[in-house]
Design a protein that fits this description.
This protein has 8 helices and 7 strands; from the N terminus they run ααααααββββαβαββ. It is α+β, with helices and mostly antiparallel strands and 193 residues long. Strands 1, 2, 3, 4, 5, 6 and 7 form a 7-stranded antiparallel β-sheet that branches. Helix 3 packs parallel to helix 8 and helix 5 packs antiparallel against helix 6.
């Protein structure tokens, strides 16, 4: 019963595995000197055919939805204006821009977040609890580690994480099933150290 009540902030901290630590260190090693340049890059989606028309896109979306709603969500979200897709699969959209500092992998940060499944069901929210969460950037799931290092204090981003940079094949504490696509709204309130 305790696992069902455990806030995702603890799950985020517990979410590190050897695979995720490897991908986190790869993210840190692959970072470009300018975080602004990295945040402004958009990686295009692989072509399904040669620029599918509207009818073809609907067919693709229907087929993906029947096979895997999470993968369909990733595909559809990546097509939206303002959504940037990183090589790791991280998708983000800037809701509000801040002007503060950006954290390093070794920084502690204070954040507010709201986490949902692709169907909109909330699995955890510091916003709903009314208490922001503080944690080290390099001790959370890989998608958060990557995104936080591109953000500035005052930024509020919408993140969509494929399973590979979330909780992967193991899921998290019975609360998040294996191979689950997750959606977060994250506000970086303060960088501490």
């Amino acid at each position: 019963m305790y696992q069902k009540l455990m806030p995702a902030a603890l799950l985020l901290l517990a979410g590190c595995s050897e695979t995720q630590e490897t991908s986190q260190s790869q993210v840190v090693q692959e970072q470009q000197p300018s975080q602004e340049i990295q945040a402004s890059q958009t990686v295009s989606q692989p072509e399904v055919a040669a620029e599918p028309g509207h009818a073809e896109q609907e067919l693709i979306q229907q087929e993906l939805t029947h096979q895997d709603p999470g993968q369909a969500y990733l595909y559809i979200n990546a097509q939206k204006p303002g959504v940037k897709v990183m090589p790791s699969g991280l998708q983000f959209e800037i809701i509000e821009s801040g002007e503060g500092r950006s954290p390093l992998a070794t920084s502690n940060v204070l954040t507010h977040y709201h986490g949902t499944f692709v169907n909109g069901d909330v699995f955890d929210s510091s916003v709903d609890r009314g208490a922001p969460a503080e944690f080290p950037v390099n001790r959370v799931i890989a998608g958060w580690t990557e995104a936080l290092q591109m953000m500035k204090e005052g930024d509020k981003w919408r993140l969509v994480l494929p399973p590979e940079i979330a909780y992967g094949e193991r899921g998290a504490g019975g609360l998040i099933p294996p191979n689950t696509v997750l959606v977060f709204e994250v506000e970086l309130i303060e960088v501490k150290g």
